[in-house]
Amino acid sequence: MALSKLNRFHWHMTDSQSFPFVSRQYPQLAAHGAYSNHEVYTVEDVREVVEYARVRGIQVIPEIDAPAHAGNGWDWGPKHGLGELSLCINQQPWSFYCGEPPCGQLNPKNNNTYLILQRLYAELLELAGPTDFFHLGGDEVNLECWGQFFNDTDLRGLWCEFMLQAFQRLRVANGGISPKMTVVWSSGLTNTPCLSKNSFAVQVWGGSTWQENFELIENGFNLIISHVDAWYLDCGFGSWRSTGEGACSPYRTWQNVYKHRPWNRMRLTPQDSLQQ
């Protein structure tokens, strides 16, 4: 990264398949969610990565993905008197209830879920901070999952409630101070008016011609562009689907990576103020 003049490392630490971060406050997350007790990130591991990056001029921005991609690792709540922390865990058929298997989506009406997130944020800020950027996740939220449990609720409003509550918990964890910019992944929900463009930036992961690109720009959001059709380096290496191509086949060659010009594909004009 340093040789390539890249100075921010967004560390997507958790996902659907594993919760490897060994939290001091909630070691149950890794105990239930890591592949094994050897396939984890300890506090010491995180400190080592942050220091290794720091001396090379690189800032580490850790992320605990939420509310989706949060199944394995979150299924111990009832045993500890905290209620259901996550819903739809390992539910089948997975394609109805999550973007990728195994399913799991945090419970937006359980206050213990937010308390755990707040304490996780505090730990990560202590290890990686202080930081002017923070990533709240928000990838591939599936409203069908929540709809099973809260079918009398405005589900888009419930998503807003979750993200704003997570943002407030981040502020508490950061000593009452909002980061300069809080990032969320793009989805069909990120244009919901509840997110302030002054507080949130959107990391666009979809294709460069997807409609969300244009809608977010028109609504004045700052974007981090991570287009799957050019800059996903893991594409072409396998699939969770039983038939058809992988999630993002084919493999992205270095020619694809370097010739990608999102400002051309997205038809941006000078007034859009795209910062390369």
From TrEMBL:
This is beta-N-acetylhexosaminidase. InterPro entries: Beta_hexosaminidase_sua/sub, GH, Glyco_hydro_20_cat. It is an enzyme of class 3 (hydrolase). GO terms for biological process: carbohydrate metabolic process; glycosaminoglycan metabolic process. Belongs to the glycosyl hydrolase 20 family. It comes from Phlebotomus papatasi. Keywords: Glycoprotein, Glycosidase, Hydrolase, Signal. The active site is at 140 (proton donor). One of its GO terms (cellular component) is plasma membrane. Transmembrane segments: none annotated. GO terms for molecular function: beta-N-acetylglucosaminidase activity. It catalyses: Hydrolysis of terminal non-reducing N-acetyl-D-hexosamine residues in N-acetyl-beta-D-hexosaminides. Residues 1-266 form the Glycoside hydrolase family 20 catalytic domain. Pfam families: Glyco_hydro_20 (PF00728). It comes from the Eukaryota.
